[in-house]
Design a protein that fits this description.
556 residues, mainly alpha
């Protein structure tokens, strides 16, 4: 018996050895292919570090599979290893994809080999694809290469629209032309989109020309509570006379800085289309060109956040400079947000309250953000306390003052302190009589309390005229008509609210109520059942819906 077993084992072992010798080459290839596919999986999961390990273990395939080099380069770039990616491309035999040739072109430009860059740009045209930003990238790089080579602006690319104006602004700044300021102002004041970012570069150009008084005047017009990270920090630098900071982070006399800003723009465009891999690719190139300008990394963190990759988002934020108060605060806010989005609200609040202690003399901006965060966590008492601190530091009878009153009033209303809520909200409306959100909030609060119904409906009509496609306001108007028994008008507005926001439990609940009153009970049941399907329907509402499905809504 044992002898037979030994014979079988011997045969099996012999066959395996023979097979391995015969198929050694196949096993060789299979090993690399396995690592390659593992790399692709890791890259797809946004785990670039693991992807690079697998790619490095399968480099045998680099000249055998066209796609290998592209995926490897992408992983290197996404991991911040831009220089390594460029060197790998240089070692490769005639790379045949757009991004590789783009990196070679950039390498030439940054080394001031403009004639070589010109040849590479011509080659780059052969790799462009229709319907992408590749043509924009090529044409813009052509204009920058011409600028650096000839020290003058080339022909404008009118077909590039606002990108051409942005490029012209920076090119004129590079040449110290008076046109730069007018270019930046045209961008900042554009009604087409939010170009407030370019206020930073406008201020930088003014400061570069030693026009400190003008810079201070402009700084005084900046609203710090609602400004972006970059603009808020700009205001603080000017107020503290830290003018040198502008040139430290960005100089329009530096070729790499100009290119970095352009690639940040491209990254933004891809991000707006939810093409996050390409967006991250270009933002990492931007950071490689100008690593000091880490404002741009906020986009990278946000891209990872949108893909629920909170680990990488946090890693990026941890690289922010804590010495600058506003960056430390931005990091604190974002990490708090990340934790909350992962349903780790207790941990998020605990983290936030520990970090608050880092700010011994917080700015008005930090106080304001803190109030909003506490309101987000439904700690309305602390929210009220911080809103009150902000109000003491803000000019009265301004739009900002009205906004804070609106927010504090909402917090009082959540606390059940209706008297104080009404005072704040009415004062906010007095300052901004056409503010649709304050009108809607106060009016809906009155409807819920069965208080001043007719006046509330008038306020809602006014709010609706200002924001007729806002689903919350539309729902409020419909609910107001429902409460006074005007079911025809109620149905009209609530139907529109459902169309605008089909997945909202409250809107579906309200529409079900009015359909019931119109004796369209089967349809009413349909919308109530919708409420039960939504994940964000709370337990109290679920209980109420079950009762309605049995007996209909309570009589009003």
């Amino acid at each position: 018996m044992y002898f037979k077993i030994l014979i079988i084992l011997f045969i099996l072992l012999y066959q395996n050895v023979a097979y391995s010798k015969a198929t050694d080459k196949n096993d060789f290839n299979q090993k690399y292919l396995s690592n390659y596919f593992s790399a692709l999986v890791s890259a797809g999961n946004q785990n670039n570090e693991d992807a690079i390990v697998f790619f490095n273990s399968s480099k045998f395939l680099i000249n055998k599979h066209d796609n290998f080099l592209r995926e490897y380069v992408f992983s290197l770039i996404l991991d911040g290893k831009v220089k390594k990616a460029i060197n790998q491309i240089k070692r490769s035999d005639n790379p045949n994809f757009f991004e590789a040739n783009l990196l070679l072109t950039l390498d030439s430009i940054t080394k001031k080999k403009y004639k070589q860059a010109e040849k590479r740009l011509n080659k780059l045209l052969t790799f462009q694809e229709n319907g992408t930003y590749e043509f924009v990238i090529i044409k813009t790089l052509e204009s920058y290469n011409y600028l650096f080579l000839n020290s003058k602006v080339g022909k404008n690319n009118r077909n590039l629209g606002r990108i051409d104006l942005i490029t012209s602004a920076f090119q004129n700044c590079y040449l110290s032309s008076n046109k730069a300021n007018s270019n930046f102002l045209n961008l900042i004041n554009s009604p087409e989109s939010d170009y407030s970012r370019y206020l930073f570069f406008y201020l930088g150009n003014i400061i570069g020309n030693k026009d400190f008084e003008v810079a201070n005047e402009i700084s005084q017009t900046i609203e710090p509570l609602k400004s972006s990270l970059l603009i808020a920090q700009s205001k603080k630098w000017i107020e503290e006379n830290n003018y040198e900071k502008f040139n430290y982070y960005f100089s329009c006399k530096n070729e790499k800085d100009l290119l970095a800003e352009f690639f940040f723009l491209i990254a933004n465009l891809y991000s707006s289309q939810d093409q996050f891999k390409l967006s991250n690719f270009y933002i990492n190139i931007s950071n490689y060109l100008n690593p000091k300008f880490y404002f741009n990394l906020s986009l990278l963190a946000e891209n990872y956040q949108l893909n629920n990759n909170f680990i990488l988002a946090k890693k990026i934020l941890n690289g922010f400079n804590n010495e600058e108060e506003i960056y430390h605060w931005y990091k604190t806010k974002k990490i708090t947000q990340f934790l909350a989005e992962q349903d780790r609200e207790e941990e998020a609040l605990d983290y936030f309250e520990k970090k608050i202690n880092d700010f011994k003399n917080p700015s008005t901006k930090i106080l304001y953000d803190t109030a909003n965060i506490y309101k987000r966590f439904k700690n309305y008492k602390k929210a009220v306390d911080y809103y009150s601190k902000v109000l003491s530091e803000v000019d009265k009878n301004t739009s900002t003052f009205a906004d804070i009153l609106y927010r504090r009033g909402g917090s009082y209303e959540r606390m059940g302190d209706y008297e104080r809520a009404d005072i704040d909200l009415l004062k906010s409306i007095e300052i901004r009589p056409d503010d649709p959100y304050a009108l809607n909030y106060l009016a809906y609060s009155w409807l819920e309390r069965n208080y001043k119904i007719e006046e509330a409906i008038q306020m809602l009509d006014k709010a609706y005229n200002e924001k007729e496609n806002d689903p919350y306001i539309t729902d409020s108007v419909g609910w107001g008509y429902y409460l006074i028994g005007d079911y025809q008008n109620a149905e009209k507005y609530l139907r529109k609210a459902v169309e605008l926001m089909p997945d909202d439990p409250i809107v579906n609940d309200h529409y079900g109520d009015v359909l019931w009153q119109l004796n369209r009970k089967m349809q009413a049941s349909y919308f109530w059942k919708n409420v039960l399907e939504f994940e964000d329907t709370d337990e109290e509402m679920r209980k109420d819906i079950y009762k309605k499905l049995l007996n209909g809504p309570n009589k009003i």
